[in-house]
Amino acid sequence: MTFRFLARRKARDAVTDSSTPVWLVVGLGNPGPSYAGHRHNIGYLVNDELASRMRGSFRAHKSGRSDVVEGRLGAPGSDAPRVVLARPRSYMNEVGGSVKALATFYKVPPERIIAIHDELDIPFDTMRVKLGGGDNGHNGLKSMRSSLGTGDFHRVRVGIGRPPGRQEVADFVLSNYSTTERKVVPFTVDTAADAVESLIAEGLERTQQRFNS
């Protein structure tokens, strides 16, 4: 067997093993290179960082609706939490169906789903972590709530701030970060990935104490 095959089988076995629960971490964004640098795609960037920490590569899920990385997140060892990272292939306003399909396949209840998304009402370079709540006009969250039948999933809310002047919100979220912001984004992504790890390993209360700046 090749090393690559063994690595893939090990990652698969880590998720199919039923001894510990699975967490589904959904990075919200729009698929395709034309959207890659947009403020709306911060969830994709955070999941890319988490995939790097898991030493995994995204591959097509058998549902055909998402790309996933399966494995364990955290310090090496059998006690590391089992995690599925997901990048839905659907556009933001239709993402719920993709998330529902994964949650059903991996038998993940809403309370073990984490959505990573951009947040207009939080200043740039700050973040909040919470469980449940409204959609606040975010189409990805709205679609997830509709498909899952509940909004009681965790959210890692990465602040992008409000658009300047009279710029429309839709234009703002579907635009690239400014030159100054791009220098900060890698640190923001790293911190948001830390928050996801903390949420899974340490729970909501301790994560909020550390990251709700």
From TrEMBL:
Reactions performed catalytically: an N-acyl-L-alpha-aminoacyl-tRNA + H2O = an N-acyl-L-amino acid + a tRNA + H(+)
Marked site: Discriminates between blocked and unblocked aminoacyl-tRNA: N30
Annotated positions binding tRNA: Y35, Y91, N93, N139
Subcellular location: Cytoplasm
Site, Stabilizes the basic form of H active site to accept a proton: residue positions: D118
Signal peptide start and end residues: none
Residue stretches in coiled coil: none
Active site annotation, chain numbering: H40 (proton acceptor)
Family assignment from sequence similarity: Belongs to the PTH family.
Protein name as it appears in the record: Peptidyl-tRNA hydrolase
Organism: Nocardioides lianchengensis
